[in-house]
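Example 9 (inverse folding). The structure is encoded as follows.
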């Protein structure tokens, strides 16, 4: 089928649908919803059988939906309408004695927003989590199921059915756009649970506006702080970039803030934003963005860094934790990343906010390279990169440093740097990528700018295995497989073989030479006369909207 994807941005859901549909052989093209004339033109040029809209902020023009069936993904259950569907679901939480359920509905566009005939509605159980995390997991999986089902029925001549308000599954209702006032925190009254719900309802976007230590900020990345108390609203502690703020019945960690009263209005680690105010706070334990656990001869490193972005400091901490794991009596080390992201490479926001972004880029890339080298040169343990969440750019190549790369089935990879102003990239990618995929595939992977699903990544050799339909499933199977590896009597032979191959590779070309060559090119990206990387980073972190769809996506314009 010829399918035109129409979206506000090529976000994670649009990317996932793109790879699922491409994998099934559909002819795809994509247009950003810039204005009605562009949409009309795209439909005219591509001649799609249908338009799929996974993420739109505006209505589709009438002449378009009258001409071609337009299927719109709405992140709410049957009957729900409005632009803040998930925000309301998270904010209002579970009502007592009720299963906390939500859903995704695939509608056929008509003259009214979110009110078209229904192709499919897929329910799911809610979880206590930020909106963006629910979107990346439950909403995405439900949307994929709804779209695949609808396409099958569409191909067989099926039709959508009008919405029936007395349908048992009609859990939703029309809701207005959520305002800041709807989620504003009253620190003198709100409990920890209420504060968490409010912050999570706007995390990643748009955050909850608040004042903290006299600063105008939005709050993100909140977690319960166990065992800490204080005057409600007061800052009581700090820990690894986060600050802890007391509520009426406990306290919360706040990991990230976006300041509104500074020139650099970016989401950043809270300690960085608050500076002196944070430095004065007592240090406490409990904000967990990096931890180690161990069972059955397997060491696990969890590093759910916010948005998968890794600052120099985070890379250094992770390296220290990795080295400590290597000193333990374990035979297998699982690099587990986080549930939402495994890694998206160097922390572009922290770099942007630094006095010298070029120097901070240099410092961070060297820190992530040190980590990659430590993984690559571990001769006496087997390492597994276990990707429950997506990975992008340097994050993908860091994963390839491990001996085994396992991914959850629905993970999307973006194994390229080109989109960031033609950044050359490091993380020893010139060694690890051809080692796995061969030279020809390696060239194709780095030249591409498209997202890659796990099926393709497996075919190309980037991924050794893909399994598990959800995070819990995936983690459980990783546990079983890692335990089996650790107990495998053949493990010493595997490790001998690993050391032999590494020594042979080192003799052909030392790791230091790969790194020096990559960094020579990166030095030009950071300090050279071409500012493309700095411009692309600025546009990325400040979310400068794209004025047109790149040609590698808008195939109809090629
Ligand atoms: N540094 C800082 N923030 C990052 C980041 C990075 N390397 N990668 C992603 N993020 C942030 C995004 O800004 C976004 O922030 P938000 O919470 O304010 O919305 C959030 O993570 C989610 O990213 P988003 O781009 O919306 O996710 P996606 O699934 O649509 O796209 C990527 C995933 C990886 C394609 C995209 O995030 C990307 O290109 N990241 C940059 C990768 C990179 O170039 N790294 C540097 C070179 S190693």
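The amino acid assigned to each position is listed next.
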């Amino acid at each position: 089928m010829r399918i035109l994807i129409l979206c506000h941005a090529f976000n994670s859901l649009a990317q996932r649908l793109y790879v699922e549909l491409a994998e099934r052989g559909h002819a795809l093209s994509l247009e950003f919803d810039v204005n009605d004339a562009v949409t009309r033109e795209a439909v005219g040029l591509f001649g799609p059988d249908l338009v799929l809209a996974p993420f739109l902020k505006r209505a589709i023009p009438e002449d378009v939906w009258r001409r071609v069936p337009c299927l719109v993904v709405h992140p709410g259950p049957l009957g729900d309408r409005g632009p803040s569907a998930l925000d309301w679901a998270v904010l209002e939480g579970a009502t007592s004695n009720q299963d906390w359920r939500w859903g995704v509905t695939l509608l056929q566009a008509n003259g009214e927003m979110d009110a078209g005939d229904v192709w499919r509605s897929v329910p799911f159980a809610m979880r206590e989590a930020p909106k963006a995390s629910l979107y990346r997991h439950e909403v995405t999986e439900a949307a994929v199921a709804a779209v695949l089902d609808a396409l099958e029925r569409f191909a067989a001549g099926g039709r959508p059915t009008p919405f029936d308000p007395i349908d048992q599954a009609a859990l939703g209702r029309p809701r207005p756009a959520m305002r800041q006032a709807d989620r504003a925190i009253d620190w003198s009254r709100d409990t920890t649970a209420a504060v968490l719900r409010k912050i999570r309802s706007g995390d990643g976007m748009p955050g909850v506006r608040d004042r903290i230590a006299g600063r105008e900020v939005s709050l993100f990345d909140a977690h319960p702080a166990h065992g800490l108390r204080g005057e409600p609203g007061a800052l009581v502690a700090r820990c690894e970039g986060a600050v802890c703020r007391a509520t009426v019945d406990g306290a919360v960690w706040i990991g990230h803030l976006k300041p509104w009263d500074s020139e650099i209005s970016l989401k950043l680690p809270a300690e960085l934003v608050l500076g002196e105010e944070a430095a004065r706070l007592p240090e406490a334990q409990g904000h967990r963005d990096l931890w180690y656990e161990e069972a059955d001869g397997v060491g696990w490193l969890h590093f759910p860094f916010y948005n998968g972005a890794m600052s120099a400091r985070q890379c250094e901490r992770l390296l220290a934790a990795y080295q400590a794991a290597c000193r333990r009596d374990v035979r297998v080390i699982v690099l587990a990343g986080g549930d939402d992201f495994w890694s998206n490479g160097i922390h572009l926001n922290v770099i942007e906010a630094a006095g010298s972004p070029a120097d901070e880029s240099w410092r961070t890339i060297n820190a992530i390279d040190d980590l990659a080298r430590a993984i690559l040169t571990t001769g006496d343990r087997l390492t597994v990169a276990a990707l429950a969440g997506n990975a992008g750019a340097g994050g993908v190549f860091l994963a390839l440093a491990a001996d085994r790369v396992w991914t959850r089935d629905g993970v999307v990879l973006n194994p390229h740097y080109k989109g960031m102003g033609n950044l050359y990239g490091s993380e020893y990618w010139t060694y690890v990528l051809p080692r796995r995929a061969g030279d020809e595939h390696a060239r194709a992977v780095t030249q591409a700018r498209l997202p890659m699903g796990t099926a393709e990544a497996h075919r190309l050799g980037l991924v050794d295995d893909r399994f598990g339909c959800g995070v819990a499933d995936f983690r459980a199977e990783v546990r079983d497989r890692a335990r089996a590896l650790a107990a495998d009597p053949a493990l010493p032979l595997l490790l001998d073989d690993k050391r032999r191959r590494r020594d042979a590779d080192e003799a052909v070309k030392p790791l230091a030479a790969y790194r020096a060559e990559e960094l020579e090119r990166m030095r030009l990206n950071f300090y050279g006369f071409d500012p493309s990387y700095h411009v692309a980073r600025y546009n990325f972190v400040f979310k400068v909207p794209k004025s047109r769809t790149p040609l590698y996506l808008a195939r109809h314009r090629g």
